[in-house]
Amino acid sequence: MAEFDYDLFVIGAGSGGVRAARVSAAFGAKVAIAEEHKVGGTCVIRGCVPKKLLVYGAHFAEDLKDARKFGWKLDGKPDFDWATLRDNVLAEVDRINGAYTDTLENHDVEIFKERATIEGPNSVKLASGETRTAKHILVATGAWPHMPEFQGSEHAISSNEVFHLEKLPGRVLIAGAGYIANEFAGIFNKLGSKVTLVNRSDVILRQYDQSIRDRLLQISMTKGIDFCFNAEFEYIEKQEDGSFLVKVTGEEEKEVDLILIATGRRPKTEGLGLDAAGVALDDKGAIKVDEYSKTNVDSIYAVGDVTDRVQLTPVAIREGHAFAETVFNDNPSTVDYDCIPSAVFSHPPLAGVGMTEGEARNQLGSVKVYQSDFRAMKNVLAERNERALYKMITDADTDRIVGLHMIGPDAPEILQAAAVAVKAGLTKTDFDNVVALHPTMAEELVLLR
What we know:
Layout: E1 6-11, H1 15-26, E2 31-34, H2 41-46, H3 48-67, H4 82-106, E3 110-112, E4 116-120, E5 123-126, E6 131-139, E7 143-145, E8 171-175, H5 179-191, E9 194-198, H6 210-222, E10 226-228, E11 233-238, E12 244-248, E13 254-256, E14 258-261, E15 265-267, H7 274-277, E16 300-302, H8 313-328, E17 342-344, E18 350-354, H9 357-364, E19 367-374, H10 377-381, E20 388-395, E21 401-407, H11 411-423, H12 428-432
Parallel strand pairs: 1-2, 1-6, 2-3, 6-16, 8-9, 8-14, 9-10
Antiparallel strand pairs: 4-5, 5-6, 7-15, 11-12, 12-13, 17-18, 18-21, 19-20, 20-21
Helix pairs in contact: 1-8, 3-4, 3-5
């Protein structure tokens, strides 16, 4: 008889856990996975996928308005129905959940649709009370929204619940300044809500280049989004009509219909039983791992946001794949965390890869910066004054491109290809030697001066 029930037991069927389970099974391992919600994790169920679909829906507000300048006759004011968008998005989530489940089952991965906790280095307990053993345990439970506590904080919601609203709120207050806060600010603003964004500091999207984030702030304010900086919640009071009275420091009381807290996400390790196995956590509650995603306990590994290395879905997928290669294919593999591209699907979207100008000056000293500040052709004809900004940072001594940042229509789609060049260590001269593809926005990348 086998010493353990499984070669691998995965806790959490998000992007990292599913990839690790599928690839490990393909290498011949006997694998089980436990998920207390839906298969697919944060990205598929309550994150980047449904949020991007809402972004697409919100974009039609401007597209329909601009269409008139392109000869399209639209009688009257376009009518938007929140319930239709919401239900179609949730239906797509269910479809993808089914596809992820089918993928696991097709690889003979046993799925437990219930919570699992760790009882020891090789033991897992299911919510049903049953215990399973495994030679290796992989924790891939992701992260969870951070919800601060203050008077009336129970009346606020997180990004988990925002996809299920019964109706579109007329007035929305969003707490935070990261990508979640700015993306939902753009979504609600374009769908017709009055949006106020509250932040504890005076900086949005701190990890992005200052020129790019300043441009987003300028455009957001022009679109009618209000910002309250250096402010924290004092209280929330629910009123008889169902609305809320909100007080933040330095501001008058404000009546709103929805309060969304988007102040970051924390590794979801609480109640997992990690202490029973002696798994070490850092001061933020994240699981400590080495370069091969192994914890201080030889049989237990962790990938994805629960380790708080880089909270991005593609990174979790790579970590899950590298784990499977290392443990079940005798091919020790690690993930390269250098020069990872990222994007914010705001209105307009922004994206970046490599060093910001500030980081480059601090690390390299001598740098050259090239910029293009322009209006997209579509915006010109639509008489929309919104301007795009592309920015390239190079090492002045070598001409190597160390950072590329942009804000404007389709910026993330353009940056994905350009990120390959930055990662490969190409130079500004390499870009200059490429003939422009005209007329496109992307051609600005090879015309920067």
